[in-house]
Design brief:
The chain is of the alpha/beta class. Helix content is about 40%, strand content about 15%.
């Protein structure tokens, strides 16, 4: 029997971020192990713009349509990937009907909110802890994040790692960038929580390249006129540009994983980062990058890392492994502590 899992997510196309890439890759890889992933996304709901995130809109779901979409999908299991309006509506549906569900902790919103609005992190963590407390399993992407959340009072935590498309992110597809070498590159949302200033302010040889867009772009373009901002890139074009870099710089202090690190490594590009959650889990203990409290030291040290070692490392981190972990976690939730609980929607 094919296991049908409905994933509720506020993050969806055309957004370009790690959550969307993870869910898209999950759908593709889960088919190989007998699971069918469908999505309850913002598509079809009215939405409103988020002032601090140009281009981002949040859905305005209503309970009747949420129920209709869930019942039409007839899932064996429900997973809530985000804590936005969609996630809250689906959570409420499950609680009203006493249906087990799983969640995932994908974004450090408390740190993001504190960076933007100076709201104490403890308030946001209280809110998130309550949100996830009702889940049978809350999935986190790294062992250190599991430990961190456990220390903050989260319960029933399990690991769900990330992967990389090694066919797409291929060092042999590198673009020709007419820029002074070495090229230090960052890919991602240009926003204050990504800590890009820590990278752009460094005294480094060669060129600095930023791929992406976001609310801090105009400010950083003005402050750092020597940096090459290349806008958003997709698919093979993105992979070709990443493969052209000499070092991938990941200055974020708040990412729970950072799929872009694996994508860079798959292109044979070593990573330079701070020794924090995310980078520490992805490359810590492996000779595929440099972690240092001094980011400049990390950047210069990464120039000496073997590009072949980076590629070999990435080849062992597949989305298929990630999908198997996800399906196993969902299976544990279906069984439940009593061994008797099952979702009834698929009956």
């Amino acid at each position: 029997m094919t296991l049908r899992v409905l994933v509720a997510t506020d993050a969806w196309h055309p957004q370009v971020n790690g959550v969307v890439r993870t869910l898209t890759s999950l759908e593709r890889s889960a088919r190989k192990i007998g699971a069918e992933i469908s999505f309850l996304s913002p598509e079809g709901f009215p939405s409103f713009p988020v002032p601090t995130y140009p281009g981002l809109r949040l859905a305005i779901p209503n309970g009747r349509d949420i129920a209709r979409r869930i019942e039409a999908a007839r899932p064996h299991a429900i997973h809530i990937a985000t804590e936005g309006p969609i996630g809250h509506s689906v959570r409420a549906y499950c609680l009203r009907r006493n249906l087990p569900f799983t969640t995932s902790y994908t974004t450090k919103f408390p740190e993001y909110i504190a960076a933007r609005f100076l709201l104490p992190e403890s308030w946001s963590y209280l809110f998130l802890r309550r949100f996830h407390a009702a889940a049978r399993v809350t999935m986190a992407s790294t062992s250190s994040l599991v430990q961190e959340l456990r220390g903050r009072g989260f319960r029933r935590l399990s690991l769900w790692t990330r992967g990389v498309d090694t066919d797409l992110f291929d060092p042999d597809l590198a673009a020709e960038l007419d820029l002074p070498r070495p090229i230090f590159m960052n890919v991602g949302r240009i926003a204050v929580e990504k800590n890009l200033e820590a990278f752009l302010a460094l005294d480094l040889p060669g060129s600095k390249v930023v791929i992406g867009e976001g609310p801090q772009e105009a400010e950083l373009r003005h402050r750092f006129p020597g940096v090459h901002f290349l806008g958003v890139r997709h698919g093979r074009d993105l992979a070709a540009h990443v493969a052209a870099a000499d070092v991938f710089v990941f200055p974020s202090l708040t990412d729970t994983y950072g799929v872009v690190q694996l994508e860079a490594l798959s292109c044979g590009v070593p990573v330079a980062a701070f020794p924090v959650t995310g980078p520490r889990d992805v490359i810590g203990g492996h000779d595929v990058g440099v972690l240092d409290e001094d980011l400049r030291t990390a950047c210069l040290g990464a120039l000496n890392v073997s590009r072949q070692a980076c590629r070999t490392f990435a080849l062992g981190r597949s989305w298929d492994t990630s999908a198997r972990q996800f399906v196993r976690n969902v299976g544990h939730a279906l069984i439940g502590e009593s061994g008797r609980d099952r979702l009834s929607l698929a009956a």
